[in-house]
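Internal tracking record. Fields below are filled automatically when a chain is submitted to the structure queue. Please do not edit lines marked as system-generated. If the sequence contains nonstandard residues, flag them in the REMARKS field before resubmitting.
Queue: standard
Priority: normal
Entity type: single polypeptide chain
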Amino acid sequence: MTAEQFPWLTAIILLPLLAALLIPLLPDKNGKYVRWYALGVGIADFVLMCVAFWQNYDSSSATFQLTENYAWVPQLGIDWAVSVDGLSVPLVLLAGFVTTLSMFSAWQVDRRPRLFYFLMLVLYAAQIGVFVAQDLLLFFIMWEVELVPVYLLVCIWGGARRRYAATKFIIYTAAASIFILVAAIAMAFYGGGDVTFDMAALKMKDFPLALELLLYAGLLIAFGVKLAIFPLHTWLPDAHGEASTPVSMILAGVLLKMGGYGLIRLNLELLSDAHIYFAPVLAILGVVNIIYGALNSFAQTNMKRRLAYSSVSHMGFVLLGIASFTDLGINGAMLQMISHGLIAGVLFFLAGVTYDRTHTMAMKEMGGLALAMPKVFALFTIGAMGSLALPGMSGFVGELSVFIGLTSSDIYSSTFCTVTVFLAAVGIILTPIYLLSMLREVFYGTGKMTCDITNALLENKEDEGTVCFGTDCLLPTESVYRDASTREVFIAACFLVLIVGIGFYPKFVMQMYDVKTVAINTQVRESYTLVAETNPNIYEKGFLTQELAKAEMSSVLGTLD
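SYSTEM-GENERATED OUTPUT FOLLOWS
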């Protein structure tokens, strides 16, 4: 068997899944060996995907590659069909990178470690499955499988309100995913003939516009919940607030990106005609996400909830890029997802490091920690600079691409573009406010601490400084709030090196998907040209003129009869 014939993608999915099944057989009682085992599996799988893509992926092609297709459930028309293209490759690598580091961050898990790492490896496999599935029912199955480990990880290893947060997560995401199943069945059975769930075959079908609009709306709800689009976002702050550090890293770093990936893969690529009508809605929702998320983030006193609402705000830029009708805008949306995955991953990790020392997420109970934990402070500051889109960081390139892509769009009116960009810029102004105030409150304090630094025990200790935390006053050398360990510095550095590297050389990432996003935008613009011929004033008269709506609805009803 040659390298090209080897089932790379199947191996990448099955390796962590099969490895998880072996965990109960490991001779380990306290979790010391199982954590090394899980980390080794994660590293091995990440290396495997790097080798597979390095040797077999051609970034100059917009077609699907490494294609594998096996009959799975032929009676239902379900195939094990997996492949990758420019949309899949960077997100598969992101999932492998973030999930592997999240398992390395879970070194202190001592409660049911076998179950914890079993669920982490199953989640690893399911995430990869979502990004490489080319059968729509397989995509749905992987999407559902991913929900179960997250629910259990939050419910068992979460905070005081973990059951509430986990239940809210599963209700929102499971209920919304029903729309994926309904859309898959509707597209597979439409038109008669052989039933197929293959995305390439579905792309060739000519769906009536009214049906496309219904399918688009349903998928927008399904992916909107995962992407945390307002008002479908409320599960996210609760889940982040109660989830353990490794789970928060995956939630923000990978799972949110599934929503953006679904919008581009299905809504843009399969339902491009309907996208013409929904694009302004996505742009408006993007602006709402940016401002609403930023304002709510500033209002939070819990560090993880502040970061969670920050994620809601940043996902607004993804929506703006998807709605831009420009190559650069969609490129920016992809880069924003990758960039945010890295930035959110490191910020939630460092928030967890801080929690391990202080045992609280309430920022008002913190202060002065920069003296006790200078490494954590430095790493947190660099991560925050990436989140507020400082030039030289990946966040800056992603947001700038979206802004230029939207402002250069020739589809929208200049007024719409100006107002949209102006409102989005307000969100950018709010971002440093809530991030820098968080750094000040956590690491410097706000003058609200009540500790007495003239304590007699400390009077003769010169030039060493004191650490105030609540009513305690300690010297840095005596503080229980120890600085980051070598392992923790390594994990944070892995994220930050990529954040800075992409900021200075974004082509490193963009070349993986540039050809594919250009092809998708070309298809969308062709759809716009065809729609504009029958409805030239589409953005002046709303989504659908009355005559067009009646004609298309009659076509759908006639087909169903």
